[in-house]
Amino acid sequence: MTARLRDLRLRMLALMIAIPTAVGSVAVLMMWYPTSAYAQSAPVGLGTAANFAVLAGSTVTNTGDTVVGQDLGVHPGTAVTGFPPGEVLGEIHEADAVAQQAKTDLTTAYNDAAGRTPFTALDVELGGETLGPGVYRITAAQLTGQLTLDLQEDPDAVFIFQIDSTLITASNSSVIFINGASPCNVYWKVGSSATLGTGTDFLGNIMASESVTMNTGATLEGRALAQTGAVTLDTNTITEPECAPDAPPTSDGPTSDGPTTDGPTTDGPTTDGPTTDGPTTDGPTTDGPTTDGPTTDGPTTDGPTTDGPTTDGPSTDGPTTDRPTGDDSTSNGPTLKAKTSSDDFMSWVGLPITGSGAWVTILTAGLALIAAGGLLAFLAWRRARQS
């Protein structure tokens, strides 16, 4: 009996050791070999820099009929030249507090994008590649031809490119989307300078440590943001990136509007009112069954004691009286306006956003479970020796 009890006890200890060790090992493996679901990154928070299509550290210079779709700013530099003939659809901020705050937020966003893990290493040449959402690391990026970004039908897909030095595109190169489109969730962290070649069609937020140069005719759906150096433009078009829209609203006031018969087709200055209401005008052919309640207006009751001050009349017919049948379209709309993606754009780009907190927790838990398994194994070994 004693031997059987000891054998049962050892088996239970072995089970207690195996479970936490296995769980801990799985957690550690998940840390080093994450699945695509766990590798999905959150957007990089641009803060107030999201209001700028062009933001520079030293100068902004332009040649030709460039169009800048958002604000343009510079800080700590003060020089902005070439506008006109260039056009800024937003505001120009030259070394003011707004530009300073945007530069601070840009630095935070740059550091956030630079620190995202895990990442996939890519070759220098991006032309001809088709990439899914994720974080990509490149020593120096060159784009010749077309780069395809596959959103995989995910409107929240995020692409982060961590480029150690330069980003250079050849003439007439392009970046395109398939299976969706969300340029505001594409981020190019450039370790030195970015140069878009003549006629390049580019997408995303360029965050360069030094400078951004857009050669003649290059277009950008995104932002050209330079931390320390200049942004140089030449007959370019920079448009605000369109984010994935919010889900459509479930209702926009249809439950309050009635059958749309009230208003100009019923009571009003043409029939009821203190000057016309009476047995000679307001009879069974106007008031009564078409608008007012069936127990009030009629040939015997319509008069100064019922119709008039309480319901009909030029000053009361509308939103204050005919509530059960609704009102016209001008009174409901503003209070039930559906929220659009632009209304809450700044709510999701708040700073900071980090990308590694969950992995730290998983790794810590896994190591703790492995340590617990080791401790139980040691205790079991000691107990076995003593018995």
TrEMBL record:
The keyword Ribonucleoprotein does not apply. Keywords: Membrane, Signal, Transmembrane, Transmembrane helix. The chain crosses the membrane at residues 12-33, 358-381. Pfam families: Ice_binding. Residues 239-341 are annotated as: Disordered. Signal peptide: none annotated. Belongs to the ice-binding protein family. This is Type VI secretion system secreted protein VgrG. It comes from Glycomyces harbinensis.
